[in-house]
Amino acid sequence: MTNPNGQNDNSADPEQAAEPVVSKPYIMPDDPEPGSVEALAKELADARDKTLRTLAEMENLRQRTRREVADSKIYGITGFARDVLDIADNLQRTLDAVPAETRESADPMLKALIEGVVLTERSLLSALEKNGVKKFDPQGEKFNPNFQQAMYEVPDPSVPAGTVVQVVQAGYTIGERVLRPALVGVSKGGAKTAPAGEHQ
User: Fold this and answer.
1) Are 145 and 93 in contact (CB under 8 A)?
2) Who's near 103: CB < 8 A, 6+ residues apart?
3) DSSP assignment of 147-170
4) Which tens digits make up the pLDDT trace of 65-96?
5) Is residue 141 one of the residues assigned to a domain?
6) Which of 6, 68, 155, 184 has the fewest CB atoms below 10 angstroms from its CB?
7) Do residues 164 and 173 lie in contact, with contact meaning Cβ atoms separated by under 8 Å?
């Protein structure tokens, strides 16, 4: 068909007259508007922050787990060690029950028995030490309530007040912790001991 200007008129043909359709990209409802660089930068910073926080939490968890495993190796035998301490105490009481002069004049059989008890106690303490349990005897030291439990006071002006003058029961540590405090008698009546750090 020709229009009055002599050109072909394609308006009658709808297929030829339609403009090509350009599809627009689909935008998710929570996506930033196209061109919103600030919003994308903020989203990137938030994602980076969350990633860094997660990595830090994972590292903290890894270190805490490592500490717990190490502690369980050191302190896992605490209950068993406390039970064994009764045996060590009984061996010590057995030795204390035989006076030194009796040991010297004892017949060979009694000496052999005493020596057997001494060796058994030594072997037991050695086995405990291999597992991190150590015996301590605070005789003559300044009283420390973190490691000792005072049972009574002893009037003794020859030593400074607050000094351990008698040990009723030895104490034990496991790792860096007190497994059992030493039961002690503490002096009173002597000159006071200077607190740590003070000079007289």
Assistant:
1) no
2) 111, 114
3) TEEEEEEEE-TTS-BTBEEEEEE-
4) 998 888 888 888 888 999 999 999 999 999 88
5) yes
6) 6
7) no
